[in-house]
Structures are given as structure tokens and as C-alpha cells.
TrEMBL record, chain A:
Swiss-Prot/TrEMBL keywords: Endoplasmic reticulum, Glycoprotein, GPI-anchor biosynthesis, Membrane, Transmembrane, Transmembrane helix
Pathways involved: Glycolipid biosynthesis; glycosylphosphatidylinositol-anchor biosynthesis
Bilayer-spanning residue ranges: 50-68
Compositional bias annotation for Low complexity: 20-29
An individual GO BP term: attachment of GPI anchor to protein
UniProt topology in membrane: Multi-pass membrane protein
Compartment list: Endoplasmic reticulum membrane
Name used for this protein in its record: GPI transamidase component PIG-S
Highest rank taxon of the organism: Eukaryota
Family: Belongs to the PIGS family.
GO cellular-component term (any): GPI-anchor transamidase complex
UniProtKB/TrEMBL annotation, chain B:
Similarity comment: Belongs to the peptidase C13 family.
Pathway membership: Glycolipid biosynthesis; glycosylphosphatidylinositol-anchor biosynthesis
Keywords tagged on the record: GPI-anchor biosynthesis, Membrane, Signal, Transmembrane, Transmembrane helix
UniProt signal peptide: 1-35
Record-level GO cellular component terms: GPI-anchor transamidase complex
Catalytic residue positions: H169, C211
Gene Ontology BP annotations: attachment of GPI anchor to protein; GPI anchor biosynthetic process; proteolysis
Keyword Secreted attributed: no
Membrane-spanning parts: 381-399
Molecular functions per Gene Ontology: GPI-anchor transamidase activity
Superkingdom of the source species: Eukaryota
Organism whose genome encodes this protein: Linum tenue
Name assigned to this protein: GPI-anchor transamidase
Pfam families documented for this protein: Peptidase_C13
Length: 613, 401
């Protein structure tokens, strides 16, 4: 068996032996037969395999960004920093409004008051009284006048000197806003209405829109009736103290009290209104729903001319409350609506009595279908005003207070729900004719009285006293509502930002982004308006801020149950891509390694050739 | 536990002089006021109204008892004063008009058919396939489409007390809706948290009547929430009795005993919540009723059941009409409640740590479970597990070549 030298092929031969090259002549270059395929090769390795595998890998790599983009979640960019900043800012620095006060001393000549009154001294003493009173309550309360209120004092002694304390600079009051000397002539102090009108025309209301409201108290030293000094508050932003032989210093306390308690705090002891007396819906709307309830129409049933009342009595109130809430009104008449509490006959008082203990059970929600409003949207607040006409076997029906006396109004409210008033017909004689009784229209006087009570209840529901009639009360409401709305929008936006950041895979629509942006702008506007002193404008923009913030927070697409976590997505996609991509990767690596090996073999052969040459 | 305060005050009154009595009384008043003031912020808002959300989550005829449970509670809550406009009733199926119902348009919770629960004035807000987890969470959080009518919304405010009652089939940390999806305990906790942030309730009472109901409360963290469940983890809740005429079980035990408690009450009563909670007897229920009070600040003995189950309106008398002269303010009316302090029920429902004799497999599984519970961050453990897939895959592929 001689060794047969065979020439191996150019590609690796599975039977190529190692020593086959020895038989060759050493003079010639190494022939292919000398090459051991396992360590050397004579040609450069081809790139086809490498190209094939790497192209597949490259296509995977190129496709990955497209996949990522298609599973990306659209999140409209929300200004988280601004939202958190707003909520922090509102909590840390409560909103204070500028208020302007003015006091006028009329007819205090030097004879009666023992010396010439100095306006500056009066001013400083009134200021100290007022600061004493305001420090009793929480000074830094939101919506209060705070420490930046201004006070000016005018002493008008008839035709002679009219001295004023200097308080013109820096508070933005135009000169014709303050009291003009000699504007108030002789006042007929007996007639309150006339005094009110005279004061109103003298104190020129038209300037009050700019720079805050001006509240005035006039002390009139006249020859009124002989009793002590009387303090009265008018319908507009002024009040007066009148009496005879008044001492100016003694009046300072009462004047300060009037400024603080009536004009600053709206007649309440503390300045703040609690949340349950702010029945404004989250979209800034309130629906007043008036219902006339006939308990038993077989006895009698009443109807009312609501349209006339709406025009004459309701519209002014709605106009006055316009900055606080957008109010709409509806009315209905219901039949067969008995109440669910019991009453008993009291001989001494001559009527059926229900007490204050029965009040929580008066409203019979099973039979009284009050909430059938179509005017109200999802986030509007409805306030029910119910006029209850009792049946013949409970007529007349009166409310007895715990003190034993009969209530004059026969009505009560439930905060955030509305008010009820019981109206007894003129005569309680049961209808005994045949057939149904005729429809009786309520007399306009009765209706007027009923509406007075209902308007008092409306004031109560908004946190004021039921008989407060002055415009200053609306100012207090504007301030408090501005505060409340800003606070609410701040907390809502803060909650929204926390919620959105805690759900990183939730889609945030553009609409939400827009609402948040507009809400922040409205809140900013409200704060600027408040600092300047525009009460109504700040109330309106704060209401808008709150409604937009609530719309954003309660957007129906923010439901965590609809969005999957990242682990879920990974679990869905990985069975498709992970095994395949692993194989592709491994193949590419293997091909790369093989190419390197072949390259090394070729290099070795080359080296050997060079050495042999 | 009996309240000893009146006795102490009276004994002191006998023993000390009037000055000492005055000082002690003022100190007690101040401390009680301070204790009240140091409670949660929900103390400062007034309780304005009560709401009830009653959910039945099961379909099919053999789950008749869940519908009967919910309708019985609906009837109770209406009888005690909550109006329809403040009740959201969600029934997942219609048993009254089911073709298998021998008594059409009638639903009973008792085999003697004493009461037709579907009789008069039943207003169902969500019926049939509308009862889904998504709708339920939308009701709680308030995120409806704008076209949803007011009667289907939970329009509560910051002074509302809400009763949430759920019944159906459930298990460990979930409750089954409609036989196709689940409400998990973290979903419920998340919804309650969002409600609290938006001040949609002052206090919330959650009552759940399913198997292993107590696990549904595991993730609750919001203050002002009181929760009671019909059974603990690992226990089933059982039905009370079978009505052979209708052909199915008609009421569950937990709800049956709850109703028995309420049938003794009327609108003017003031039995306390602790009396309700202590009225459940584990022997009769065949499970341990569990209630959770750590998130609730008030003392259960002082809270009347009508705070949640009835309807007490806060009322203020209107002292005067809209006129020009000021009048004196009459003080605000508050409803004076005399708490029922004599608790003489001998039956208790305190949960007991029962050690049962188990087979080794169960022991291993339960020890593993307890170890898992001690792991702090379960999410990161899951992520590590997912990341570990890759090397395992690589190794297996390499081995296969």
C-alpha cells in the first residue's frame, strides 16, 4: 500500500490526510495537497453565509424601532410641575383681597363733641380697634381682607371745615369714589329707606368696580329719637349709626365692629364658610328646582303663577349670584305627596304641630319625586325648594321650636339639599262637593310671602343669614367662593398629576392636556384679579378653573382597569419574538465565529506559503 | 363594653364639692373635644346625606340567592329612609322575570314567601350586562361619559356616608362579576383611594357577602372606611336555606342575619354599629364574620346604624324671611343621639386563629405562601423572574445544538 499522493480539492476534503503534502517536491509552492483542511485553507472564505445571516439579524434590528413605536402609548404632556406648584401655592399663601373702608362723621361740630375732631387720630383708633377684632379670628384665612385694608376718615361739619385723613396714595381709588364734602345734607333719620337712598346717591356706586369695594359707615350726630345710638345696615355697601349727642370716640368701637363683623365677615362670627354651605356644582352650575306639593288633592289643590315670580322676584337674586354660580330655575306642581313624619293636634295653639325633632323625617322621598330634572347635567348641583300644602286632616300645620313658640316662617333647610316650607291655606274647610275640587290659584300676596321665605332659605343655603339683604353679602360670597374654588382646583390638579404619574401606561388624551392648561390659566387669572380687587371677575375665573380641573380629573378615559402593565405587554410579545430572535442571534454569532476561523486558516496557509517561498 | 362615664360622674358628684365637679366636667369636656378634634379631617365636615350602592354580581338561575340578598337589603335601606335617588342598585341578572321562575315577577328571600321583594317601587339602575367591573368602578370614581343620566351616577359629596354592599361569588382577593371577569382587591382599594382624594365620601361602610370575603379588604388604606365581610380567608359563606318550591336557595346566611337585625329596627331607632357587628354568631353563620375598623376613627358603639342604613337629614330652621331688620340667630339644631351602651350580647364574632390539622402538602404550600407574603417588593421579584428567562433560554438552545 504505497501512499498515493492525491491532489486534494480546493475545498476541504473530508478524507484529506495530513501528511499528503510530503511527497511533493519542495521546490514548488505548497500545493493544495499539503494543506490540512482543519487548520488551513487556500482561498479566502466567502462572505455569502455571513451576509445571509447578518441581513436577517439586521432586518430584526431595523424592525425593532417600528415595533416599539406601534406599541407606544400616547400621553399628552401634562405640566406636572405647574400643577403641583399651584396646589402648593394655594395652600401656603391664602388669598387675600383688598378692601377699602371709609367712615364719615356728620354734624360733629366742636361744641357738641368737646374739641375739634382730628381725622388722623380717629383713623388710628379705628384701625387699632379693627385689628383687635380681626386678630380674634384667624387672620390668614383665605378670602378675608387680611391686613391690607385701607381706611379713610372724613369729618364733615356742615358748611365749615371738612377734614379728611390722607389715604389717597397707592390704593388705586379714583378721587370721585370717596366722600365729597357736603354731599349729605339734612337726613331724615326716621325713615330708613330715605336715608339709604340718600347715602347711595351721595356715595356714588359707580366706582366700585375698580380696585376693590368701598364700604362706608356714616355716623350722624343729629337729633333723632331719644333712645341710644342706632346702627343700621343699608342695602348697598354702607351703613349708618345715628343718635343724638353722640360722642365720637364712643362710636369708634361700634364702627369698627360694623366694619369687621358685617362687611368683612358677612355677618358671621368667623369669616369662613364651610363646604356644606357652598352648593355649587363642579361645573359651576346650580339648578333651583321649585316644587309645589299638594298632599291630598282630594281636599284641595293649588297652582301658582311661577312665571311672574320668576321675572320679578327671582331674577334679581340670580343676577346677584351670577359671579358665583350659573343658576337656572325650574318649577313643578306635584300631587298626592304626603309627608312621612307625624303631627299631633294641639288645642292651645289651635293647629297641628310638628316639632324640630320631626324635621329630618319630613321629606318623604318615596312619594316626593323631586329629582326629575332634565336641566341638570351630571355634575350640576340641584337645590330643591318645596312648598308643602297639607291635607285637610292636618290643616293648619305649624312648626314648633324647642323653645315652645311657633315658627314664623314654618320652614327649614337641609344643607346641600334645599329647603321646605309649609303653607297653610286660608281656610281649612274640607271641600265637600261632588266631583274633584277646582284648581285654586294662589293669591299673589301669599306667593310673595312664600317667596320671601324661600329667598331667605336660599341665603341660608349659601351660608348667609336668612335676612341679609345688603350687597356686601354677595361680596363676601364672591371672596369665599373664589377661595374655595381655587383650593379645590389646586387639590384636583394635584391629585390628577399624582394619578397620571402612578399609571405610566395610561393613555392621556389631548383633551385632558388642554383642560389642564386652561384650568391653570384661569387659576392664574383668578389670583391676579383677586390681588387687584375685582371680586366678581376673580369668582368667575376661579369657577371656570375649578370646572375645567374637574372635567380633566373625571375624564372617562382615566380608568386604570383598561390599561395593562408593562409585564403584561412583555408577556404578550415575548413568546413571539424571544425564541426567534435568540436563534437568529446565535446563528449570526456562529457564522461570525466560523468566518473568523476560516480567515485564520487562510492566513496560516498564506504564512506557510511565504515561508516556503 | 359598658361605658362607665355617667357612673363615674355621678359618684364623683356625690363625693366632691360643686367647684371640683365643675373643674372635672370642664376638663372632661375639653379632653373629649380635643379627642374629637384630633381625629381625621372628616370630623370637620357635616354629615349631609346617605348613599347606598348595592351590587349583585352573579348571573344564572342558581344564583337566585344573590339577587334576593341584594333586593332584601335594598328594601331595608329604603324602609329606613334612603330614597331611590340616592340608591344605586346593580343587578346582574333578572330573576323575577326569568323563565324558570315559577312565581313570575316575584322574588322571595324566605321559603314561606312572606315578602315579595320585587313588589313595589323597585328601581334598578344597572341591569344585566351593564353590571361590569368597569361600570362599577366608574360609579365609584365618578368617571362617566357625559351622556350618563343622573340616576346612574353616585352624586355624593364630602358629607356623604356611603354603604357599599356586594354579593356574589368570590375568592382570595377577588370577586367574580358575571362569570367572566373579576374585581380585584387592589382595584377596589384604588377606587376607594381616588374617592377619598376627591372627597366623595365622609365615611364608607363596605359589606361583602361572598366566600373568603375578608381578603377583598386587604389593600384598603384610606381613612374613614369601615369594612365587614361574611367570611375569612379559606372559609366559604353558605346559603341559609333552600326553597323547594322555587327550587333554589333563596338567601345567604350573612345577609339573613343582617336582615333579622334590621327587621327589629325602625326609622327612629338608634342601635349602634357595634351591636350589629356583634350580632353575628359564627356557629349560625358557619363562618367567621370579620370586620375591619383600623381605618375608622370613631368608636363603633357611638355610631348608630342609621348613619349608614337609614337617612338622617341635617336640618336647620329658617328663622326669618328676607326682610330688612336683623333678628336674633337661633342655635343650630343638632340631632341628639343617645348611644345604646348596654351591650349584653353573649355571642361574639371575634376571629380566632384556628390551627387545623393539615397534611404535609398543605403545610408546605402554606409555609411557602407565608414566605411570599414576607417578601417586600413582589413586583421586582416578578421582574427578576422574567429576566431569568433569557439565560435559561440561551442555555437550552446552546445545549440543543
Amino acid at each position: 500500500m504505497a501512499e498515493i499522493a492525491e491532489s486534494p480539492s480546493t475545498t476541504e476534503h473530508p478524507l484529506g490526510t495530513v501528511g499528503a503534502s510530503r511527497s511533493k517536491a519542495s521546490s514548488s509552492a505548497l500545493r493544495e495537497s499539503d494543506v490540512d483542511p482543519k487548520t488551513m485553507r487556500t482561498t479566502t472564505p466567502g462572505l455569502k453565509r455571513l451576509f445571509l445571516t447578518f441581513s436577517v439579524l439586521l432586518s430584526f434590528l431595523l424592525g425593532f424601532p417600528f415595533l416599539w413605536k406601534t406599541v407606544e402609548i400616547y400621553r399628552s404632556p401634562l405640566p406636572f410641575g405647574d400643577m403641583d406648584a399651584l396646589s402648593k401655592q394655594i395652600e401656603s399663601s391664602p388669598l387675600q383681597f383688598p378692601c377699602h373702608f371709609q367712615s364719615v362723621f356728620l354734624n360733629f361740630d366742636s361744641r357738641s363733641s368737646g374739641g375739634i375732631l382730628d381725622p388722623r387720630e380717629l383713623r388710628s383708633s379705628i384701625l387699632s380697634e379693627m385689628t383687635k377684632l380681626t386678630s380674634q379670628t384667624l387672620e390668614r384665612q383665605c378670602g378675608s381682607c387680611g391686613e391690607n385694608f385701607t381706611l379713610s376718615v372724613v369729618v364733615d361739619s356742615g358748611d365749615r371745615a371738612c377734614r379728611q385723613s390722607d389715604e389717597r396714595h397707592g390704593n388705586g381709588l379714583t378721587p370721585n369714589c370717596s366722600y365729597k364734602c357736603g354731599a349729605l345734607g339734612a337726613l331724615n333719620l326716621g325713615d330708613g329707606e330715605a336715608v339709604d337712598e340718600a347715602l347711595r346717591s351721595a356715595l356714588d356706586e359707580s366706582c366700585s368696580d375698580y380696585g376693590g369695594k368701598l364700604y362706608t359707615v356714616v355716623v350722624v350726630n343729629g337729633d333723632g329719637a331719644g333712645e341710644g345710638p342706632k346702627a343700621l345696615v343699608g342695602k348697598h355697601r354702607h351703613g349708618w349709626i345715628s343718635g343724638r349727642e353722640l360722642d365720637a370716640e364712643a362710636m369708634i368701637g361700634r364702627m369698627a365692629e360694623m366694619f369687621v363683623k358685617i362687611f368683612m365677615n358677612g355677618g358671621r362670627e368667623d369669616g369662613a364658610i364651610h363646604g356644606e354651605f357652598m352648593p355649587v356644582g363642579a361645573d359651576g352650575r346650580v339648578v333651583l328646582s321649585f316644587s309645589l306639593l299638594n298632599a291630598n288633592p282630594d281636599d284641595w289643590f293649588y297652582d301658582w303663577d311661577f312665571q311672574k315670580l320668576d321675572d320679578t322676584l327671582l331674577n334679581p337674586v340670580i343676577e346677584a349670584l351670577k359671579p358665583i354660580a350659573n343658576i337656572s330655575v325650574e318649577s313643578q306642581v306635584l300631587y298626592h305627596t304626603p309627608k312621612s313624619s307625624f303631627s299631633y293636634w294641639d288645642e292651645s295653639l289651635g293647629s297641628y304641630i310638628f316639632s324640630t325633632k320631626d324635621l329630618p323625617f319630613f321629606v318623604n322621598s318615596n312619594e316626593w319625586h323631586l329629582d326629575t330634572s332634565v336641566a341638570a347635567g351630571g355634575r350640576t348641583k340641584i337645590l330643591q325648594f318645596v312648598v308643602y300644602v297639607p291635607s285637610a286632616n292636618e290643616c293648619p300645620l305649624s312648626l314648633q321650636l324647642p323653645s315652645g313658640e311657633i315658627s314664623k316662617t314654618n320652614g327649614f333647610i337641609s344643607p346641600m339639599w334645599g329647603g321646605v316650607m309649609v303653607w297653610n291655606p286660608q281656610s281649612c274647610i274640607k271641600y265637600s262637593g261632588s266631583g274633584p275640587p277646582a284648581r285654586l290659584l294662589m293669591h299673589p300676596d301669599d306667593l310673595h310671602r312664600i317667596f320671601e321665605v324661600l329667598m331667605g332659605q336660599l341665603r341660608q343655603l349659601f351660608g348667609l343669614k336668612s335676612d341679609s339683604i345688603y350687597v356686601g353679602a354677595a361680596d363676601v360670597l364672591s371672596r369665599q367662593h373664589t377661595c374655595f374654588n381655587l383650593h379645590s382646583s389646586g387639590t384636583t390638579l394635584g391629585s390628577l398629576s399624582r394619578l397620571v404619574q402612578s399609571l405610566p401606561r395610561m393613555i392621556i388624551k389631548d383633551e385632558i392636556g388642554k383642560q389642564v392648561k386652561f384650568s391653570l390659566e384661569a387659576a392664574q387669572l383668578a389670583q391676579t384679579n383677586a390681588s387687584v380687587g375685582l371680586y366678581e371677575a376673580s369668582a368667575a375665573s376661579s369657577r371656570q378653573a375649578r370646572s375645567l380641573a374637574e372635567d380633566a380629573f373625571f375624564h372617562p378615559s382615566i380608568m386604570s382597569v383598561s390599561y395593562f402593565s408593562f409585564e403584561h405587554c412583555f408577556a404578550v410579545y415575548s413568546p413571539f419574538f424571544l425564541p426567534v430572535s435568540l436563534h437568529v442571534l446565535l446563528a449570526a454569532l456562529r457564522e461570525w465565529r466560523r468566518y473568523k476561523q476560516e480567515k485564520a486558516k487562510y492566513v496560516r496557509w498564506k504564512v506557510k506559503q511565504v515561508k516556503a517561498a | 363594653m359598658r361605658s362607665k362615664l355617667p357612673d363615674a360622674a355621678s359618684s364623683r358628684k356625690m363625693a366632691a364639692s360643686s367647684a371640683v365637679v365643675a373643674i372635672l366636667a370642664s376638663i372632661w369636656l375639653c379632653s373629649s373635644i380635643a379627642a374629637d378634634a384630633s381625629g381625621s379631617s372628616s370630623e370637620t365636615t357635616m354629615h349631609t346625606n346617605n348613599w347606598a350602592v348595592l351590587v349583585c354580581t352573579s348571573r344564572f338561575w342558581f344564583n337566585y340567592r344573590h339577587m334576593a340578598n341584594t333586593l332584601s337589603l335594598y328594601r331595608t335601606v329604603k324602609r329606613l329612609g334612603i330614597p331611590d335617588e340616592r340608591i344605586i342598585l346593580m343587578l346582574a341578572d333578572d330573576m323575577a322575570c326569568n323563565s324558570r321562575n315559577k312565581y313570575p315577577a316575584q322574588v322571595f328571600n324566605n321559603e314561606n314567601h312572606w315578602l315579595n321583594l320585587y313588589g313595589d317601587n323597585v328601581e334598578v339602575d344597572y341591569r344585566g350586562y351593564e353590571v361590569t367591573v368597569e361600570n362599577f368602578l366608574r360609579v365609584l370614581t365618578g368617571r362617566h361619559e357625559s351622556a350618563v343620566p343622573r340616576s346612574k351616577r353616585l352624586l355624593s359629596d364630602e358629607g356623604s356616608h356611603i354603604l357599599l354592599y356586594m354579593t356574589g361569588h368570590g375568592g382570595d382577593e377577588f370577586l367574580k362579576f358575571q362569570d367572566s371577569e373579576e374585581l380585584q382587591s387592589h382595584d377596589l382599594a384604588d377606587a376607594v383611594k381616588q374617592m377619598k382624594e376627591k372627597h366623595r365620601f365622609k365615611e364608607l361602610l363596605i359589606m361583602v357577602d361572598t366566600c373568603q370575603a375578608a381578603t377583598l379588604f386587604n389593600q384598603l388604606h384610606s381613612p374613614g372606611v369601615l369594612a365587614i365581610a361574611s367570611s375569612m380567608k379559606g372559609e366559604n359563606s353558605y346559603s341559609h336555606h333552600l326553597d323547594s318550591d322555587v327550587g333554589v336557595s333563596v338567601v345567604d346566611r350573612f345577609t339573613f342575619y343582617t336582615l333579622a337585625f334590621f327587621e327589629r329596627l325602625n326609622m327612629y331607632d338608634n342601635a349602634s354599629l357595634s351591636r350589629l357587628f356583634n350580632s353575628y354568631d359564627p356557629n349560625l353563620l358557619m363562618s367567621n364574620a370579620y370586620y375591619r375598623t383600623d381605618l375608622y376613627q370613631r368608636n363603633l358603639q357611638e355610631v348608630p346604624v342609621t348613619n349608614f342604613f337609614g337617612s338622617v337629614m341635617e336640618t336647620v330652621h329658617t328663622d326669618s324671611a328676607y326682610r330688612a331688620f336683623p333678628q336674633k340667630n337661633t342655635p343650630r339644631e343638632t340631632r341628639i343621639r343617645t348611644g345604646n351602651t348596654a351591650e349584653d350580647d353573649s355571642r361574639r364574632s371575634i376571629l380566632t386563629d384556628m390551627t387545623k390539622a393539615e397534611c404535609p402538602f398543605t403545610r408546605i404550600v402554606s409555609s411557602l405562601e407565608s414566605k411570599m407574603e414576607t417578601v417586600g417588593n413582589l413586583d421586582s421579584l416578578v421582574n427578576y423572574g422574567l429576566v431569568m428567562i433569557l439565560p435559561v433560554l440561551v442555555v437550552s438552545v446552546w445545549l440543543s445544538t
